[in-house]
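Now for one record:
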Amino acid sequence: MIVIISGTNREGSLSSVFSSALNEIYQEKGLDSKVLELSELPPETFSPSAYTEKPGKVLEFTNDILKASGLTIVVPEYNGSMPGALKLFIDLLPYPESFEGRPICYIGIASGQFGALRPVEHLQQVFGYRNAYNFPKRVFVPAVHNVANRENGITDSELESRLAGQADDFIQFCRSLGKDI
């Protein structure tokens, strides 16, 4: 199974739009996939006690991560990095089994001209530290509001093609690592 993490807890985000589109791409390719919406995390996730008493939704998402053959992360750029909710979610996951030897794919989206290059690179450092396999074919989407919206989804056919191509290559990458997908 491919698990897609919508990398912000902002409701109605373009990360959700991209995550849904990616889910459809993987399912059209005959794969089992699932989107984890960080906006579904309850407020107690952001309490200091969440490190010792994990909320039920965090436990549910943890189980999905542990069952995944690969992870795809859609990350928006917030102030030059990843959203704090995404980093907190990563920090709440068990060490080392959550990411050890797990393939990770990245899509960066941003209003600015660099398409979330910085948050993707920050995530690659985090997951590299956690001994995940960083898939090198990243997709960066600058000026994201010009190619996607909540009403119509992704509106740029060339971008849809790039995402489908990335998905094909990520599937092959996962299989080359012996992952059953």
